[in-house]
From TrEMBL:
Residues in Tail specific protease domain copies: 613-782
Entry's Gene Ontology BP terms: proteolysis
InterPro entries on file: ClpP/crotonase-like_dom_sf, Tail-specific_protease
Name of one Pfam family that matches: Peptidase_S41
Organism classification: Bacteria, Pseudomonadati, Bacteroidota, Sphingobacteriia, Sphingobacteriales
Any GO MF annotation of the entry: serine-type peptidase activity
Top-rank lineage group of the source organism: Bacteria
Protein name per its UniProtKB record: Peptidase family S41
Length: 808
């Protein structure tokens, strides 16, 4: 121990952590060795290219149809194709990496769009002009008829389908529906007045048009399920209940269009039809003819390039270096559950090869070929699936590809599925390029852990705690120790509020007193210390941050390392050297603190009657099955204190207790789930689920005055319990700001056997007040005092008893 004024320099050798792009950051990370570089960090252009790869991978991962069939592995797509780009993040390697990843999809409609062939581009700009004959009626043979029915024909009020019925001897019809341009009005008339009645005459049962099927997400599926576990929750008897742990996960979404059979056109017996179409034909015409061809009821020749919508929707992306691409995000499903049959012929739109006589001969020749059933088709998945995310456990730090896999996975998950992305104080779009260099160079246990800490903390969501499987909060040797002290933040200052009984440091600890103001840790001012920690501590609000900082991260470091703490007492500053003890020992010593509370003991029994016939109930320590006996004990109490602080042992206790209190069905809150069907965020929406409390017939706890106690220890289910009680009573809520992190913690895996969470839906009061970040509504706020913290006085409970005393 060394005593001196704060201005005196106390020099001691220690190593500072080198966090990328944060030079000379004075954090208390003296336990970290100098970080070793795997390779020189890419320049900003290289980082943007790697970020582009991440975004493309995210679209494929969550929206490409092939990913929902269990045949492709998203992780493998990324790991196998990013290597060259990491070695040299050049424009050429970005293009190469994307091209190889897209080729692995086996989907010709997901592709790079750059460098079009000049000849083909010229051909697209000079399309064939089709003659707009008025019912071009050419009989080539005794039983063959060519009929041109372009959309221009419908400038006049004419119904040309009768032409077919007049030719009773004709057996082969070639119907030319090609148009020179897209015209919404005339194209629709072409369909309604001619195509629709003709097709209705060719079918004998309802014809269902092909429909686009895409992913449907009601929030994001948690990623930590093992491969052999059903996602449904069995009850204690093994039965599957309706509730899904992942809130429905994935579904396919489609729209239905159909055509009923009708004999509106009198057709010759055994008539056969071949239709000529191009991309300027109305969408209804093309979809109906594709459905008809899928039934083997016609032949179909397509002239030119097929419209993209016949294969499904595509999402265009503009990337660095002028690159652009499209990724298919849905597929066309036909009435038989397959991807359908495509046109018999797809011909180039080339005037030299599409002479009328040649085209007609091709069409009639096709008609003279017997119509046979197409090759056996595969019935597609009726729903999409999602494979569990692998955690890649490893005894060493994961390599750069795996580290980036974790970053890409987390970033895309938040980008598409976080209902609270708008609450992130910095741009989530820009965060990807910020974190890529950090993860590239995080090649040691300590630097990788800190990169993950900063990433998960960056979303400012109290759910996003970082955990390492089988170990807990921190890896061995990294922030696994604490000084044997307790601190609390009050009014912008930090004070020692307890000295833990560490027998090995009695002499050093004897120099400290509860109530001492903490000025610095390892010569870093506490204000700066806590500010720097704010980048690494997971919290939705200040109350949650102070809870985590005071309880775990204040002066944290590797167990066994030494720290210098500078304190002030009565205007005199002193410095004390202490060793950090193991985290488990720290928590055990905290449990041995003996304090004399100034209010009645808040320990077992967790339900009791206090003086003055005041009921007391510690909600986070009771179970739903005990409510009948509890209600019988408290039935004669006019006022009941519900101590809702802490996380409940029974996840259903809040809903159950609210049911005992409720006198009528009440909507106490609503949940907002992301409704995601497309990587185009403008096409997505939200789904609202209402939380309704139904009254329990037990009358013992109804019509009483309730006082609900809350503090920063309330989070997630602990906050929902309060909201449920507030919704069914006129309760007075007393206490401190809660953590403001609610809404189904969705698990996210990271390579290296880490995992984290984020809040999967937004929780709101019926008046639209959010719970996230704000915490629950409080009627009477309580500000803790230094005297109360030192003595262990429960000032929240004290305020409740004070109010009740005044009301008697």
């Amino acid at each position: 121990m060394v005593n001196m004024n704060l201005e005196t320099k106390h020099v001691r050798p220690f190593l500072l952590a080198v966090l990328l792009f944060i030079p000379a950051m004075l954090l208390p990370f003296c336990v970290f060795p100098q970080l070793k570089k795997e390779a020189k960090a890419p320049d900003s252009a290289g980082i943007r290219r790697i970020a582009d790869f991440a975004r493309v991978w995210g679209v494929i991962h969550y929206f490409h149809p092939n990913m929902g069939k269990g045949k492709l592995n998203a992780d493998s797509l990324m790991i196998a194709n990013i290597g060259d780009l990491l070695a040299d993040p050049s424009a050429q390697n970005l293009k190469k990496s994307l091209a190889t990843m897209l080729s692995d999809l086996k989907d010709p409609y997901s592709k790079l769009l750059n460098d079009p062939d000049p000849k083909s581009a010229a051909q697209k700009n000079t399309s064939t002009q089709y003659p707009a004959e008025a019912l071009g009626n050419y009989q080539l043979a005794k039983k063959e008829l060519y009929l041109a029915v372009p959309q221009e024909l419908f400038l006049k009020q004419r119904v040309p389908d009768s032409i077919i019925g007049k030719h009773k001897a004709i057996r082969s019809f070639v119907i030319d529906l090609r148009n020179n341009s897209l015209n919404a009005d005339l194209g629709l008339k072409q369909y309604i007045r001619f195509v629709q009645p003709l097709i209705a005459s060719l079918i004998n049962s309802t014809l269902i048009f092909p429909t686009s099927r895409s992913f449907y997400y009601k929030g994001l599926m948690r990623q930590d399920y093992p491969h052999d576990l059903s996602i449904r929750s069995p009850d204690e008897k093994g039965f599957i209940k309706d509730q899904l742990q992942v809130h429905n996960g994935f579904r396919n979404i489609s729209e239905g269009a159909y055509l009923l059979p009708a004999k509106s056109v009198s057709l010759p017996e055994q008539a056969r039809f071949c239709f000529l179409v191009n991309r300027n034909v109305n969408i209804n015409t093309l979809r109906s003819l594709m459905a008809l061809r899928n039934r083997n009821l016609c032949r179909l020749i397509f002239v030119g390039e097929l419209p993209e919508y016949l294969h499904g929707d595509s999402f265009p992306m503009q990337l660095s270096d002028g690159l652009s691409l499209q990724i298919r995000t849905s597929e066309m499903i036909y009435e038989d559950g397959t991807l359908g049959t495509f046109p018999d012929l797809i011909l180039k739109d080339d005037p030299e090869t599409l002479l009328k006589s040649d085209l007609q001969r091709t069409a009639f020749k096709l008609l003279h070929t017997p119509l046979k059933n197409t090759a056996e088709k595969t019935i597609e998945n009726t729903v999409y699936i999602r494979k569990p995310q692998y955690s890649y456990p490893s005894a060493t730090v994961p390599d750069a590809r795996l580290r980036l896999l974790g970053l890409f996975n987390f970033w895309n998950s938040i980008y598409y599925f976080s209902p609270n992305k708008h609450l992130i104080p910095t741009s989530w779009d820009l965060s990807l390029t910020y974190f890529i260099p950090k993860f590239l160079e995080a090649d040691s246990d300590s630097s990788y852990f800190m990169a993950l800490m900063e990433l998960t903390a960056s979303i400012k969501d109290g759910h996003s705690i970082l955990i390492k499987n089988k170990i807990g909060r921190t890896p061995a040797g990294i922030f696994d120790g604490n000084l044997p002290l307790l601190s609390n933040s009050l009014n912008g200052k930090t004070y020692l509020t307890a000295i833990l009984p560490d027998s090995l440091q009695q002499n050093a600890l004897a120099q400290l007193r509860t109530g001492d103001e903490v000025l610095a840790i390892d010569h870093i001012p506490v204000a700066q210390h806590s500010k720097e920690w704010s980048r690494f501590i997971v919290a939705s609000n200040e109350a949650g941050f102070n809870r985590e900082y005071d309880a775990t991260w204040f002066a944290a470091g590797s167990a066994g390392t030494e720290a210098v703490i500078t304190t002030r007492r009565n205007g005199i500053d002193q410095q004390t050297s202490l060793k950090r003890i193991k985290r488990d020992d720290y928590y055990n010593l905290r449990g041995k603190l003996v304090r004399t509370p100034a209010v009645p003991e808040l320990y077992p029994p967790f339900c009791k009657i206090l003086p003055g016939n005041i009921g007391y109930l510690r909600m986070n320590r009771i179970y739903s099955k005990e409510l009948d006996s509890i209600s019988n004990l408290l039935k004669n109490c006019k006022s009941i204190i519900v101590d809702a602080r802490g996380y409940p042992k029974d996840g259903k206790i809040g809903t159950a207790l609210a049911g005992y209190i409720a006198t009528k069905p009440d909507t106490v809150a609503y949940n907002v789930f992301p409704f995601v069907i497309s990587p185009d965020l403008s096409k997505n929406a939200t789904i609202i689920d209402y939380e309704i409390i139904k009254p329990n017939p037990n009358q013992n706890l109804k019509h009483k005055k309730y006082y609900v106690l809350v503090d920063e220890g309330n989070q997630s289910q602990g906050e929902w319990n309060i909201i449920a009680l507030q919704g069914v009573t006129k309760a007075t809520t007393i206490g401190c700001t809660t953590a403001g992190a609610n809404g189904m913690a969705v698990t996210i895996n990271f390579p290296g056997d880490y995992f984290s969470f984020f809040s999967g839906f937004g929780e709101f009061y019926p008046d639209h007040t959010p719970n996230q970040k704000s915490g629950v509504k409080i009627d009477i706020p309580v500000k803790r005092t230094l005297e109360g913290l030192i003595s262990g006085r429960d000032e929240v409970m004290g305020k409740a008893l004070e109010i009740l005393k005044d009301q008697r």
